[in-house]
Design brief:
This protein has 189 residues and is α/β, with parallel strands linked by helices. It is built from five helices and seven strands, in the order H-E-H-E-H-E-E-H-E-H-E-E. Helix 4 runs parallel beside helix 5. InterPro entries: MnmM_MeTrfase, SAM-dependent_MTases_sf.
């Protein structure tokens, strides 16, 4: 048994594992190095579908390699595009969506997610989200622009209709860093 609280990535995976089932359709809105994509592809199985977006070809390549290595490519579609364009590629309803915001670890730290495109993508993802589906935003703020994106997303999420969505903010208050935090949005109806 674990004695500590779950870190942001562990908590996001906990929420996904308790929402996503075999055969579901899911979205990794920021593929990055592929770890969330791999986790989601395992959850949906070969009967499900994973969409993974990233604006950087390097991230798509990293994700592709990881999915191939673990034989998870059959249920996966990788898209080299801004997540704000997700409605051009996805028509199905989504059971879960994850965003890992900030920059690509090991990549160009000048290329970051921005609140304008993230909120556009979030609006589109909410339209496609099934009842009882979840959207998770893992927010890193230790880079220029990170705090502004977090603040915009906190305002956006706080303003969501509580009759339609439950919104959770999960963060450590006494950690060095700034540690990443999570906004999780569950569709009620």
């Amino acid at each position: 048994m674990q004695n500590d609280f779950l870190n942001a990535v562990e908590f996001s995976h906990y929420l996904l594992a308790n929402t996503v089932k075999n055969g579901d359709v899911v979205l990794d809105a920021t593929a990055g190095n592929g770890h969330d994509s791999k986790f989601l592809a395992e959850l949906v199985g070969t009967k499900g579908k994973l969409y993974a977006f990233d604006i950087q070809q390097q991230a798509i390549n990293n994700t592709l390699e990881l999915l191939k290595k673990d034989s998870l490519i059959e249920q996966s579609e990788l898209i080299n595009s801004d997540h704000a364009e997700l409605d051009k590629y996805i028509e199905e309803s989504l059971n879960a969506v994850i965003f890992n915001l900030g920059y690509l670890p090991g990549g160009d730290k000048e290329i970051i997610t921005k609140s304008t495109s993230t909120i556009k993508a979030l609006n589109k993802a909410l339209e496609l989200l099934e009842v009882k589906g979840i959207i998770i935003l893992v927010i890193y703020t230790g880079h220029p622009g990170g705090k502004e994106e977090r603040d915009a997303l906190l305002k956006y999420s706080t303003d969501l209709n509580y009759k339609k969505y439950n919104v959770l903010n999960y963060k450590f208050l006494n950690q060095p860093g700034p540690p990443p935090e999570i906004i999780a949005i569950k569709k009620r109806k």
